Amino acid sequence: MSNHYTNTVSTVLLLFFLFISSASSSSFIRQYTDDSNTNFQEENGAVPDAIQGEAHYLRQHEQEISSRDYKLSVSNTVKGLRDRPPSSYSLKMESFNTLLKSTNADKYVSRPFSAAGYKWTLIVYPNGNKNDNGAGFVSLYVAIDNSTLSPHQEVFVDLRFYVFNRVEKKYLTIQDTDGWRFSYFKTMWGFSQVLPVNTFKDSNNGYLYDGDHCEFGVDVTTPTVFKESELFTVTDKFYNPKYTWSIQKFSTLLEDSYYSDVFSIGGRRWNIKVYPGGSATGKGKAVSIFLILNANEKFRPYEKIYVGAKLRVLNQRNFKNIEKQIDNWYNGPGYGDGSGWGYNEFIPFSDLKDSSKGFLVNDVLMVQVEIEAISSTKYFPS
């Protein structure tokens, strides 16, 4: 009996020690594996958050804001230099080289700023957004805070990005001729290839200065549909486009200038104005002739009309007329110079006095205008 009891106890103790040894070995192996994994991760850079749910959400969010509807056409991209700084947000950096050398800090995200009624962030990829064909370039984007957007809401904006150039003392700007459409799912837009990194790093080019200082910026504006407009048209066909004025006893006229009767062509009232003794450069040597908008014509202060016409002194012996072209913008009467156009030296006195030339016959001078084109503008609202 004693021997059987002893054997039983020995067997139980043996099994107990085997269990303890197995547990210790498993613990040792697991600890060794964990330590090895940790060391491997630490040797290859920072480790991600181990909470898988949150990590999955962050990766999904990154994928959303990096996706693009289309690749920008180069023909739609406009670059230039300007003096004015950005109006929506400016980002000055004094340690840009640190980000250029980093293998894991691939982008810089600004604090949120307000523009066009929404919250935005400016995003800079010093070595380019590799997911958007930007490797080797400086990439610039803005992202909208979509927490205030409904799933079907869209926000259309115009974007202009800025990079300061110290050499030029101006800002390089880049923008697209089309607007940008942001939504709950499309939250980030911009340019993946703003400047080659090598161009940016070369201090001789002026983008990186005082060691590693630089400045970026952006304008975010909302294009709105116009509320005021106008429609400009030109009429070139008239029922009776000519008006002829026969000036009797021309040689006896003593006043500086004379007006014809009022006549209407193209929905406007006109006068021909003649200076028998000449005006300005024609005074004392030539007759001056002008086509004048009648003083009672109603114009807005900013309104002008285009007039194409021919002024003529008719030859009364069937020889060639003297003809000169009117091709000018007319202001409304009372709104400065420009309500009348013509020529100070239209016909020399010598041609009038020579009766054989046929311009002054029986002391009658015949002046004619032929209207060829008159513009009109409709304003909305009127």
TrEMBL record:
The residues covered by the MATH domain are 86-220, 240-371
Q: Which UniProt keywords apply?
A: Signal
User: What name does UniProt use for this protein?
Assistant: MATH domain-containing protein
Question: Pfam families of this UniProt entry?
Answer: MATH_2
What is the organism field in this record? Brassica cretica (Mustard)
Top-rank taxon of the source lineage equals Eukaryota
| Keyword flag Signal | yes
Q: Which InterPro entries match?
A: MATH/TRAF_dom, TRAF-like
Signal sequence span is 1-25
